[in-house]
Amino acid sequence: MARIALKSIYHSYTFSQKDAEKMSIPDECVGTEGFVVEDLDLLWEDGTANALLGPSGCGKTTILNIISGLLRPTNGTVLFNDKNVTGYMPKERHVAQVFQFPVVYDTMNVYGNLEFPLENRGVSKKDIRRRIETIAEMLDLDDKLKAPIGSLTPAEKQKVSLGRGIVREDTAAILLDEPLTVIDPKEKWGLRRKLREVQKELRITMIYVTHDQHEALTFADHVTVVKEGQLVQTGSPEQLYADPNSPFIGYFIGTPGMNLFDCVLTDAGLQSGNIVIPISEAIRSKLALTHGSSFQFGIRPEFVQISAPRKEKWHPFTVTAIESLGPYKILTLNSNDVEIKSRAPEDMNVSEEDHVWVNFPEDKSRIFHKDVRLV
Amino acid sequence: MKNRAWLFVAPVLLLVALNALVPIMAVINYSLHYSFAGSAPEFAGLNNYIEVFTDPDFLGALRRQFLFSFCVLLVQIPLGILIAMQLPKSGKSVVVCLVLLGIPLLIPHTVVGLLWRIMTVYEVGIISKIFSYVFDYSYRVTQNPVDAVLTIFFLDVWHWTPLVVLLSYAGLVAIPDQFYQAAAIDGASAWKTFRYVTLPKLRAVLIIALLLRFMDSFMIYAEPFIISGGGPGNWNTYLNQYVARKAESYELGYAGAASIAYLYIVVVCCFIFYTIMTNLGKGIKR
Amino acid sequence: MGIIVENVTRLFEGKAALDDVSLEIKDGDFCTFLAASGHGKTTLLRVMAGIDKPDKGKIYYDGKDVTNLTVRERNIAMVYQHFVNYPSMTVYENIASPLRVSKAKLTKGEIDKRVRECADLLKIGTLLGQHPSELSGGQQQRLAIARSIVKETDYIFLDEPLTNLDYKLREELRLELKKIFRRRQRGAVIFATPEPVDALSLSTYVGFLHEGRLIQYGLADDVYHNPCSTEVGAYFSYPAMNIFECRKMTRDGRLFFKASDELMIDVDEFRDLLIKDRYLLGIRAHGLNTVESGVYTLPIQATVELSEVVGSDTELHLHHHGFPLIALVQGMGTYTIDTDITVYVNPRRFFVYDKDDGRLIAKTHQD
Asked: CA of B92 to nearest chain A CA: how many angstroms apart?
C-alpha cells in the first residue's frame, strides 16, 4: 500500500538524462519540443481509486511507466510513501500492472498463474493456497482454478492478471493500462464492477489509465486529466463535470461534451452572431474588470432549455439533427453558425428543420477566457 | 462459382499428383518386385521389406541416422535459441547480424562438404593443422571414425544452426514486451522468465524449426559422401547414402522397399514430433 | 430496389455462423446489425457483400440474383474495423483510387472535384498530401470512409468502423456518419456494431443477431420499444435491461405480478394472455429513479451496491430482495455503498417475457 507522488517530472525520449542535467531543467526546456511529459506534479493517496485520463498520445503511458519503474524520468522524483524510489527497478517497487491485453502464462492453469508471484518470493505452500483461495473467490475465479488458461475468456484472463497483482500482500499499487480494450462491450461492465469491488475491499491504490472518460469516471473517485504531457485538471468526477477549469475539460468530460462558442462582451450581454445572452451585473463586472472582450461561452447539453412554443427572451434555433439514445435524444441546434447540442426527453415531439426556442440558465453557464474559466 | 474454382485449381492438383504421387507409386511398385538390372521383374510380395528390416547394414545406417539427427537437434535447437536471444532487438546492427548469420544457409550442400573436406585434409587442412599443432592430435577424417563422425556433426551444426537462430529470432521479436514486464513485476528469475514466457511463446516457431531440421538432417547425403565417402567403413554412412548405394547397384526392388520404409519413418517421426510439441505446455502445471 | 437475403446459412467449422437468415433492405435504409462479437454480424456483412459465399440460400441485389457474383462484380464498398488504406499512397490518391479503377471513365477534373468534395465532407480536406501513417486513428478511419463513398456505389458495408476509435472521436464521427449518409441519393448503408447506442442513433432498421440467428429485424425505434425476446431486451439497452422473475397473484380482484412484497405490477389488462404461473419482467434502467416524480410512482427499498458515473448520468447498481437492479439517474449524484434508499419505479415501463422461451408477451407501456 502506498501513497504515490510525482515531483516535477519531465520526460523526453530524445534527450538523455545527461543532456537534461546540462540544460538545467526546468528553466530551459519548458515548451521545448521532444518532451512528452512536462513539469508534472501529481499525488495519489494511499488506498484510493484513481484514473489518469487523456486523449491518445497525451503521455499517459509514459507516466505509467515512470510510476512502475520501467522508465526513468529525465528529471524529477518519484516518491512512494515519501521514500524516493526514482532509481528503483520495477521489481523493487512492488507495483503490479494490468495491460491492455491479457498477459498470462500460457503453460500454467489459473492456480499456477496466481501462485507464480508468491512462489517466486518464497511464500510457503500453505500460505499460497490460503491466499489464492481468498483472491480467487473475490474475483469469482474459484471454480476455474484448475482450468487451463487457454480456456478462459479475455475478461477472465484479465481477472487472472489482476489476481497476480493482488495476490501479493506487499503490492504497493496496481496500474491498469486501458485494461478493457480487448473485452467485449457487454462483458466490460462486469469487469469494471469487479475492479471497483476489489479496490473497495482491499483498499489498494489503483491507477487506471484510459482515454475513455466513461471508464475513468466510472472507476475512479479521483480523476487526473492530462493533455500533451501536462496536467489539465484533477478532482472528483463531480468536480470535473460541474466545474471544468478549461474548455478542454468541459468538452472532454460528459457525453456529449459541453457546448462551446466564441462570443464578445457588448452592452447587451455576451454576443455571438445574432444571439445575445444577457448577463447579470455581478458577472459583467468580473468579465469587464479583468479581461478583454472575447470569451468562450460554455454550457452542458443537459442544461440547455428548449421549448417548441415561442418564449420571450429565448433564442431561436433550428434543429439540424436528432440522435435517439434510448432514454433521451440529443438534438443538434443551429443558429447562424452557432451550433449547440441539447438533451431532450425521449418522448419530446420534435423533428429535423423544426424551429425551437432555447435558453441558457445563468447558473449553469461557464465563461472562459483564453482557455481559463472565469465564471 | 464453386465448380469454376475447381477448374482453376485442377492443373495445380494434377501437377502435385504427377510430382508426388507418380514417383511414389512407381517406387512402391518396384518395392514389391524382385528387380535387377536387365532381368524381368518378378513379384516379390513383402519379401523386399522383410529383407530390408533384417539387413544389419540397413539397421546400422538407420541407427546411425537416428543418433545423428538426435545429436544435431539436441545441439542446434538450444544453441539457436541461445544465439537468437543474444542478438540485438533493434537498431542497425540487427541487419548486419542477421546477414552474417544467414551466410552459411546460402552455401549449397556440396560446397559445404567440399569446404570442410579441404579444411580437414590430413596435415594440410586448417582444422587438421590446428589439431596437430595445438593438441598434438593427428586428425584423420578418412582413417579415424570418431574424427569423421565429429566432422559431419560440426559441419551440420555450423551449416544449419543459423536457420534455427533466424526462426527463433523472428519468434522472439514478436513477443510483446508486456510479458517480460509482467514477469519482472512477478519477481520471476531469468530462468523462470525463459521457461514460462519465452519458451511457450516460441512454441509455434520451434515446431517449425524442429520439423525442418529433423527432416533435413534425416536426409543428409552430400556432405558425408564428399568428406569421406561415407567411411571409414560404414561409420559415416547414413540412410540416404545407403539406399542410394543399393539403387546404384541396381537392386531396385530392395532400394524401393528401403525408400518407402525411409519415407514412412520420416513421416511418422514428424507426426510424433508435431503432436508432442503442439500438446506440450497445454499440459497443466499441477 | 434493395437487398434481399433469402434463407442464408453459412457454416464455419461445421457450426452455423449464420443460421437461416432472411431479410430485406430497401434503398435509402440505414440498416444496422447489432450483436455481441461472435454472433454472426461480420459474417452476415461479408456474405451480403459477396466476400464469402453462403452455404445455403440466395442474395438478391435489386431483384437480381447475385449469390454467385464476386465482390468485384458487385457495386459495393466496405469499411472495416481496422483502418484499411493504401499505405504508399497519399490521402488524395487513396480517395481517388476507387474512381481510377472504376468502369466509368472519369476525366482528371471530375476525379479531382469528387476527391476534394469527399475529403471536405469527412474533414480531411487539409490532409490530402499526407500519407496514411501520418494520420491519427480517427483521420485514418475518415479516409477509409471517404474512399467508400467517393464512388457512387449502391451499397456500403461498414463493419464496426467506430470500434477502434477513442470515445470522443467515436461520438463525433457517429453524428457525422448520420449526416454524411443522409446526403446519399441511392442505395443503402449496412452497418455492423456491438454497441446498442450506435444502432439506436444511426439506423432506420435494426437487426439483432444471436448465435447466428436473426432474432428480430425491424424499424430501429420499433425494435427498441418492442424487444421480442429477453436476449434482444437485455442487449439492446444501455445499461442492460433489468430482468427478473415474478409470480402471478390476485389482489382486490385484479391480476398482479409479484417480484417482491413491494414490487407489484398491475397486469390486469393482459389477464387473458397470462396463462402460466411465473413470468419474467423486464424494465430498462431509466424506468427507475431516485426521486418520486410524475411517472415514477411505485416506491421500493433497495441497497446501493455501486454507483457509477456514465457520461452525464449516474448508473446505480442496487440490490432489492435478492435480485439486482440498475437505475439510470440523470446528473451526478453521490451514493454511499451499502446504504438503503428508496427507488421509484415507473410501472408503465415493464416488458413481460415468457419464462421458458423468453418471448415478449406484453408490455405495460402507454405509447
From this structure: 18
Report how far Cα C105 is from the mean position of its chain's Cα atoms: 38
- Mean of the per-residue pLDDT values of chain A: 85
Tell me which fold the domain A251-373 belongs to: OB fold (Dihydrolipoamide Acetyltransferase, E2P) (2.40.50)
Q: Between B178, B189, B200, which is nearest A103 by CB?
A: B178
Domain extent listing, chain A? 4-250, 251-373
Within 10 angstroms of residue B256's Cβ, the number of other Cβ atoms is 25
Question: What fold characterizes domain C2-227?
Answer: Rossmann fold (3.40.50)
Which three three-digit cell numbers place residue A110?
489459473
What residues does each domain of chain C span?
Answer: 2-227, 242-363
The answer to whether ipTM exceeds 0.90 is no
Query: For A102-112, what is the mean pLDDT?
Result: 91
Q: What integer pLDDT is reported at residue A33 of this predicted model?
A: 60
CATH topology (fold) of C242-363: OB fold (Dihydrolipoamide Acetyltransferase, E2P) (2.40.50)
Radius of gyration of chain A, Cα coordinates, nearest whole angstrom: 25
| Entry pTM | 0.75
pLDDT at residue B1 greater than cutoff 50? no
pLDDT of residue A158: 92
Tell me which chains share at least 3 CB pairs under 8 Å with chain A: B, C
Buried b (16+ CB within 10 A) or exposed e, B40-65: eeeebeebbbebbeebeebeebbebb
Q: Which of the residue ranges A190-194, A296-300, B12-16, B281-285 has the most confident prediction, judged by mean pLDDT?
A: A296-300
CA-to-CA distance for B264 and B216, rounded, in angstroms?
A: 15
Size of interface B-C (CB pairs under 8 A): 4
Distance from the C54 Cα atom to the nearest Cα atom in chain B, whole angstroms: 11
Question: Which superfamily is assigned to A4-250 in CATH?
Answer: P-loop containing nucleotide triphosphate hydrolases (3.40.50.300)
Each domain of chain B, given as residue ranges in start order, spans 61-251
Order of all β-strands in the sheet with A338-345: A305-307, A355-359, A315-324, A328-335, A338-345
Tell whether A121 lies on the interface with B, counting CB pairs under 8 A.
Answer: yes
Q: What is the pLDDT of residues B205-232, one digit of tens each?
A: 998 899 899 988 988 888 888 888 777 8
Which chain A residues in 173-192 lie under 8 Å from chain C, judged by CB atoms?
A: 184-186, 189, 192
Q: Which of A99-108, B53-62, B140-149, C36-45 has the lowest mean pLDDT?
A: B140-149
Domain B61-251: what homologous superfamily?
Answer: MetI-like (1.10.3720.10)
For chain C, list residues whose CB is within 8 angstroms of any CB belonging to chain A.
36-37, 136-137, 166-168, 171, 174-175, 178-179, 194-197, 200-201, 220-221, 224, 235, 237-240, 284-286, 306, 308-312, 315, 317, 328, 330-332, 334, 337
